[in-house]
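Box 3.1. Reading complex inputs
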Amino acid sequence: MARILKSVWLCDGVVSPAAFHLRPSIKESYVSVLREDMDSFQTDLKKVTHDKNGSYLSMSVSDIHNLTVPTLEDRVLFHVLEQPSNSLPSHAGIYIKINDQYLIGGEPFESLAIKKGIPEASVLLEIKRALADLGKKNITQFSIDSL
Amino acid sequence: MASLNKSKMNARLEELAALPKGWDDEDALPIEQKVISNTRRLIESSDETVIGKWVLFPDVNGTIMLTSKNQKGNISIGCDSFSYAIETKKGLERKDSMKFSTRSLNRILKSIVE
């Protein structure tokens, strides 16, 4: 699975946790990724990349499904669902569950950590940090012209 | 001798200061001027080696995030306060809405585990 990185999310080989932000403006319920094993991957990559030179994180589905967030007491689960569209046949989404509740951008959620006084933003940051850490060794940079 | 890490960090800060509204292709805010000046103060007061272990990112709400290169820490710098979550030798340390202070922040920058 490839998570496309906006240029501001990558610096010195480090990925910003903000790359896994669920947008409240659209009540985003998943992190968009593209399936690298699909024939349409490179075409789709070109469609979603706005810069001349882009980059993406590669994460395997099994690594995503096995990912944990040990810094939180809450049970956090990640799973991938294929969500192809006519314009992006390789599109998929990473869904995030915390204590059996799906995370949706901007929506409140139940959390043991929050009950213990940890701010909601900090809980979300730990989850995003885990995803950013997962892909940090598999960053691919590309030029639009080469696709 | 030139402070290369600090120069690089300051150059990155200038890049982030120039980001317009909607820099994320959605509704991200530009970085607040006070946040820029706070971050500049932090860079200038920091140890050259220590600051080289961190990178700067913009956040959609107009603040700046410092992330350690080993991905074990994040510090969010706001107009008057900061928040952080870092893995130290004693375990995960996490605090929210601390009053902005370069002294406190420099302690946190140094305490990250390798």
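In summary: The mean pLDDT of chain B is 92.
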